[in-house]
């Protein structure tokens, strides 16, 4: 401290010099701080920020910076910015409070604790308290406890010079300073979440606030212990939090100003326990003590936690408790009132009182619409409750019949992902902030093992305690883009040199790439899968998951199991229940897309089968090959040139050519294919015929457009000096494709029980001749014994066919939707129905055709453009997740007699041999047949006189791919698929 003059900005009595002595007239914190608290509790955040800024300017400084009386203002500025949706700034102010407390380590020992309690003081009880709060015994603590600063100066000190301060005694609101430390500790832990475990700054705070030696004042020990409870909470010392709160939250049956925050830390810690009812009991104590101590902000915070931990049996009591609190606080704190009203509505929804919840939320909305009430975070919480109310009243996502639900979810998404202040983007949610911190840490100070553990945690569904504490934060965790975290996880696995970890990380990334784009981060889809999925195909823990989801899941299970002929009204009821359950605080593990097992990821891979996977991570392409229980991984060199190579190969066989003849005159395409093979594979022995008979491929990016069937069976063909190898990979191996590694080993559905084939076609076989097209279509239909025409024989949308049709065939040149792949209509006859899109297939009913054939799907390469492959990936994922076991689709539409030959041969055996075997047979027959060039719409007129054209031309057969699961030995029989 400057030795002779007061510090700038200090008021009367605050000057500090060498004279020392007692200073009875100063107030620390300054009076402006208490005025700012009132503004904050009124709900006006912008003005509260200005008021706390003014209070911060009135605090003392020395050469080391701000003194401890600045801690409350800093902590409350953090609270303001937290509620405004600015997490980084809230953390910054909490850090500043921590730094001051750590810098003045040991300051607690300089407090004259004997003056903590105002002896003989009588505290009048506020008249607005509800009975439980009025009965709370409040200890009359003092707001002017003497604090000793400086030291007794000696002649040696004066000779030494520099900054000196003689011993001074100041009356300070030490308890409010301690409360500020506790508030900053609580909020910092909320912001950092699990990343606060053993955080150096949090550990430093705990070390800097130890009990003074020889302290024998019970109330003082309770106050310090309560502050340290919050410190332990900030350090993620869960056991210590519970123990210290039990010791220090109260003293002698009475509460003190740190009781609410101490109990709040304890309750928040216990939110992860298996007994959430204990949290509700503690939350009631928090609310009562906070009201008695005139800390209304913690009443609302406690009620939100109680609502999050309530179930159908306890929610009604929580709703009533929060409603009573809201009524009592209505004249004291608009912040507390608003928070309690929303929490009461939240609990009322859980109890099933939807009308009551709607009324409570209406009161909250009326209050929040006032000009002097600005609470963006609470408005987002209110939007969450509104979404639950809308779903409980029959609203479902994407149905178009529930604007309140759509608006509520849009409001949540806007606050979570697009929060802005003066055109500046803000990080508004802890989960997103933590994900960003983790991304910064990975590759620097975080090791591969630790980083992979954290990345895996944040790439998965938020845990149940996150849902209980803050459902908006949990929703943020499932709708935020986590692709960077998945990429970092793969890179860490690659750098560590563990091929199995690379494969599992790629599996997680590809599964998330599809699931994360679905409504509410795929939670509605997860609900459908858990409710209606086949028990034999789902994870072993499915029974426990269904039980934990409560009675709503049981209703969905019953509804999904009793689906006969689809009824739109019943479907909407099921969809609404699925939406409500997706919004509930339940854990929904990723089951819609099967995942690889953690310990033995490729144990289910059939004998003599190989799994080849690819994953683009930035501009790098990682590949793995699994066979015989072993996994190898490598980095594909020159991956950025693959798009051009694939485009040249496709152009070489006639795909997407705008002018000139389609069919090649020679075999130049083989040289291109050999070059691609040499780029992708690094070891010729990988495809040695004596190792396996079947190749299962998981492409990524432009590799989805690559017909792997055209690659040479031997890498020797890549050598220009080697003799040309005429043998193709498809001549030696059975090849099928899957969108994720997990789907390669686990089926999405059991084999079809119906042999009925539903066929629909447009002008596909003879586009310029209606009669000829109809004649060819008739021959295709007649080739299958149990076939029906759609929509002539069954006029329902494709997504509502249920299991009345075992196999759906669409023979039409249907363009994929490149912008929104899931919005693509499978057939033209139902293009006006939402159940004709892949989005519609993902809705109830869960029973759908087990095989789908999209024989004329047109992807981007069909028009000569190289895309990302997302239209193929999304189509396959969408159909498999909806319950389709096997899919056959085309990368480019062919049509003509060649397509008719394939379909006739394919369909007559499909119900009996299954998709894989029947397709292999049809393809062999086509490749041996001579074709009439004039009957092929892809060929130019200049090619109609060309002789010797056969189905062996890759243009006619290599564009199709099959996505199907392995066939267990028990299913290799008639009707296996």
Q: Can you tell me the residue ranges where pLDDT is under 50 for at least 5 consecutive residues?
A: 1-25, 969-977
| Content-based structural category | alpha/beta
Overall pLDDT, averaged? 90
Number of helices: 39
- The helix content is 40-55%
First-last Cα distance: 83 Å
Q: Describe the oligomeric state of these chains in a short phrase.
A: single chain
Q: Report the C-alpha radius of gyration, rounded.
A: 34 Å
Beta content:
5-15%
Q: Sheet bearing the most strands, described? A: 6 strands, mixed
- For the biggest β-sheet, the strand order reads 16-15-17-19-21-22
Number of strands: 22
Global morphology: elongated
What would a concise description of this structure say?
This protein is an alpha/beta fold and 977 residues long. 47% of the residues lie in helices and 9% in strands.
